[in-house]
Design brief:
The chain is an alpha+beta fold. 30% of the residues lie in helices and 28% in strands. A hairpin with a 6-residue loop joins strand 2 and strand 3.
Amino acid sequence: MLPPGDYRVVTDEEVIEGLSFTAYHRISTEILVPAAAGCAVEMMTIDPMDLQAPHEQDVAMLAVHSVVGRQTNTAAEAPVDKLRKAN
């Protein structure tokens, strides 16, 4: 298991010929991870399904941060707005 962090994922796909629309077939999925020594990286094959749970966790965390970072009590702004209009 890899520690939490930002990783680059590379998906190799090929076009499926003979269809009336464009479709792709996944050939492989690799993840780039830092090598044990130095600044090198290692490309490892990974099952795309193994990326689903971490991706869902990231989406959930982004949703929480966007709600927490925004003021949700608009009633608190009303008295300030009334004072501005009065002045």
